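Pipeline run #58 for the internal structure catalog. This entry was flagged by the ingest filter as a single-chain record with no existing model, so it goes straight to prediction. Upstream metadata was stripped on purpose; only the residue string is passed forward. Reviewer on rotation: M.T. Logging verbosity set to normal.
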Amino acid sequence: MTPQLFVLTAFSLLVAVVLYSYWNDRRVAKEKPPAGSIYETEQGRLHMIARGEDQGDKLPVVMLHGSFTNGLDMDLDLAPELSKNRQVFIPDRPGHGFSERPEHGHRIEVQVAGMREAVRKEGGERYVVVGQSYGAATALVWALAYPEDVAGVVLVAPVSHPWPYGVRWYIRVALNPRYGWLFRRTFIALYARYGVKRGVAQALKGCKAASYYFDRTRTALGFRAEEFRWNAEDICRLYEQLVPLQKRYPEIDVPVEIVAGTHDLTVLLPIHGRKLASEIPNCGLDIVDGGGHALHHSHPERCLDAVERVDQRLEMAARSPLESALRAITAVFPQRSAVSQSKQEAS
């Protein structure tokens, strides 16, 4: 093959891959309709899934997904259980899934403002916020920005503090102003086609959802060229936001529960979970021995227990001092079992 023919062939293949990338991005978006509804907000159109009904005894839950995914990630294992006795709101963070990316969309407070507006349009005025990974950082900002709305917080594998290591190479390359576009339209497009499904299954190995996660959560949406750029922007611009944010964690005075794994290699427990638990007043920390980053899929019961603990703490805080004192006194005395009580009634 002559050098000229080689260059022509390489260029033709490059053009073909770029055209495939544009075609595939449109195909992935139109393959299925959005699972929820679209809300018009000041930060643009926002997609949110609403589950369950208001039954009066439990506050609604707002669930925030992490990077390279969308609201369906939180709708897979946790939302079906939580929505049995309460309302659940699961937005796609701005720029992800079917939500538009507003100007300065990498700013967490901008993302929170749009999602809060959508939740309020569904009647959510006071709620518990549950966030995983990047979504946990979003939950922290939400609690600080709108303390009148947030009654409690559950953080799963949270990223919360500046970290001493950088971001992965493909994140930096994807955001490069000179050749990032070409990288996203070629390398990422090919990886999305041939590698990401296998990578997801490997990352979730041992989880019940591993075999169907890719299809059920529409993971391919996160590997569209523009959404991949916004994911990279979120991650690369997170560090600078956490520096001032970490100083405000002691201001959070609502019940907070953290669930973190000892084997999480994405968000290291000593740097984030442990440190955060020591800085937030009255914060609980549940350490999952051997747990990784996707605890909401590998150990969903631990995450649901954390929500239940927040519910119990809110219930205790709502009781009057006299009621709390009476409960404490009666707890000292042994309770008659149901069997002994029925026997006495029978006699």
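catalog note: The chain has one domain: 33-323.
catalog note: Residues 47 and 340 are 54 Å apart (CA to CA).
status: ready for reviewer M.T.
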